[in-house]
Amino acid sequence: MAMGIKSAGRIGLYIDGEWIFDRPSACEVRNPATEKLIAVVPGATTDDVDRALGAADRGFRVWRDTPPQQRNIIIARAVALVRARLEEIAQAITRENGKLIADARIEVERSASFFDWDMAQALRAYGVIVPGEAQMQKMILRQPIGPVVAFTPWNVPLSAPSRKISGALCSGCSIIIKPAGETPTAAVIMTECFEEAGLPPGVLNLVFGKSAEISPVLIASPISRLVTLTGSVRVGKQLSEMAGAAMKPVLMELGGHAPVIVCEGVNPSEVARRAVRSKIRINAQWCAAPGRFLVHQSIYEDFVAAYAQEARSVRVSDGLDPAAELGPVTSARRLDAMQHLVDDAVARGGRVAVGGNRVGDRGYFFAPTLLTDIPLDAAIMIEEPFGPVGACVPFATLDEALAIANSLPVGLASFGFTNSLEDAERLSRELDVGVLSINHFGAPDPDTPFGGVRDSGVGREGGPWSLDSYMTTRTILQSTARV
Q: Is the pLDDT of residue 152 over 70?
C-alpha cells in the first residue's frame, strides 16, 4: 500500500485517500496497434471493496455538508489539472484504446466540459416553496442521493468516468467507480488530479477487478444509493436486476445500433462521404455510431458507390500516426466480431461493397466496411457492430424505413437526411430513440440530454437535468405555530 499525491505512473486502486498497488493482477493492458503488453491492473479484494464502501459512506457525510460553492472550488481545481495533463492523458488513451490521438485529445477536453456544465448546474439545484395556509411552510428540497457506484467501459476511458464523477461530485455525492481494466490509465490520472486538488478522502474511490466479484457487493450494500453504468445491454440488465433486488434506482446508458435514414432527393454522394467520416470516428467504437444505412431506392446505388469510394481512401494506421484516419479496434475479440459480421452477411447472400477484411497481420486493424444486399435477419442488421462495419439496405417508402429502424429493441441514437419538412417531422415523431440528428452526424454536448429508450437505457446524462439522477427530493412540512 502506498500514499501520495500521485500514483507515480502506476495503475492502482484508490480507496479512502490511499493508493494500493500490491494486489494480484486482474487484467492485462495491451496496445491494440502492436498487441504488446503495456501494463497489468491490480484487482480489488473483498476487503478492499468493503473498505471502499465504508470510505464512501464517510466521505458522503463530509461532502454533502460542504457548501456547493466550496465543492466547486475543489472540482474546478481538479479539472484545471486534467486540462494541464491533456497530452499525457490523450497519449495514454491512444496507447490503451487505439483511437486516433486527435480523438483522444478531444475526449479529454470534452470530459472536462462535463464538469464545467455540472458545476454551474449545482448552483441552480433550487428547491421549491409551496404556497399554503398561514403558519405552515411547505418546502421541497433537492438533496444528494448518497454514495454512488459507477461502472464504465473501455471505448471512452475518460469521458464515461467523467460523466459519472461529475454528476456525483457536483450533486454532493461520494462515488466508487470501477472503470474498464483494459483502459485504466485515464481514470487513474483523473483520480490523481482530484487528490492533488484537495478532495476529502472517501469522496472518490477507484477500484478495478473482476466484475462478477465486485459488482454484486457494491450494489447489494445498504451504503450505495444509486447504480450507474455506461455499457452493454446485457450487463445493464444484469446490474439493473441486482439494483432492483436492493430497491435502488439506476442510471443506464446502454448499447444501440443507430439507423441512418437517407430520404429521396438528398445528395447521396455528400451524405455517403459524411457517413464514412462519422462511422470511423473514435475507430467506429462509440455507442451512437451510425450502423444501419437505410437509403431510398432511387439513390441507393449512388450512395453505396460513393461510400465505397470514400472508405477506400481512409488511411488505417496506429492512432499515434498523425496521418491516421482510422486506428485499430481495441481487442482481438472485437477483431473477431468484425469478421463474424462479414462472414455471416456473405453466407446469407450479401455483398461486400468495400473492405471486409483485417488490415495487416499485427495489431487489431479492420478495414472500413459496407455490407449490401443483405436480408434483414443478418447479424449486422441485429447486432451492434461497435467497429468499422456497416450495412446498407434500400427502402421504397418512409413507412418501410421507419419500420426497419424501429424493429430492434434498442433505441439510443439515429440520424435522418431529408430536404422535406414533412419527412423531418415524421422522423422526429416516429423514430423510437433518445437522440435524433437531422441532416448532420452530430451528438449531444453537455448542455443537452443523452440517453436511450427501451433496451438502450434508463435516465439521461447532460442537459438542464444532468444532476437529477444523483439527487432526491425531500418534502418538509413545518408549522411555525408555537407548541
A: yes
- Report whether 167 contacts 446 (CB < 8 A): no
Q: What is the mean pLDDT of the chain?
A: 95
Handedness of CA 243, 249, 253, 259 (dihedral sign): positive
Backbone φ, ψ for residue 20 (5° rounding):
-125, 125
Q: 452 with 410: CB under 8 angstroms? A: yes
253 flagged as catalytic: yes
Domain that holds residue 362: 258-445
Q: What is the pLDDT of residue 40?
A: 95
Contact call for residues 456 and 256 (beta carbons, < 8 A): yes
- Over residues 143-152, mean pLDDT: 98
Annotated catalytic residue, options 96, 253, 310, 461: 253
What does DSSP say about strands 413-417 and 435-438: parallel, antiparallel, or unpaired? parallel
Q: Quick one: average pLDDT of 184-196?
A: 98
Q: What is the band of 27 on the pLDDT scale with cuts at 50, 70, 90?
A: very high
Q: Which residue has the cell 455507442?
A: 287
pLDDT of amino acid 480: 87
270 counts as catalytic? no
Are 245 and 300 within one domain? no
Q: Do 291 and 220 fall within a single domain?
A: no
154 & 33 share domain = yes
pLDDT of res. 132:
85
The CATH number linked to 324 is 3.40.309.10
Cα 379 to Cα 61, 302, 339, 350, 424, distances in angstroms:
49, 24, 11, 11, 29
Q: Is residue 5 part of a domain?
A: no
- Among residues 193, 263, 287, 392, the one annotated as catalytic is 287
Instruction: Report DSSP state, residue 283.
Output: G
- Whether 466 and 415 map to the same domain: the answer is no
Amino acid at residue number 162: S
Strands 471-479 and 136-144: antiparallel
Q: Which of 80, 93, 252 is nearest to 164 (CA)?
A: 252
Residue 481 domain flag: no
* CB of 63 closer than 8 Å to CB of 71: yes
Based on the fold, state whether residues 224 and 272 are members of the same structural domain. Answer: no
How many structural domains does the chain have? 2
End-to-end Cα, the chain, rounded Å: 56
Tell me: pLDDT of 6 over 80: no
Q: Are residues 53 and 144 in the same domain?
A: yes
8 assigned to some structural domain: no
CATH number of the domain where residue 117 is located: 3.40.605.10
Whether 114 is in a domain gets the answer yes
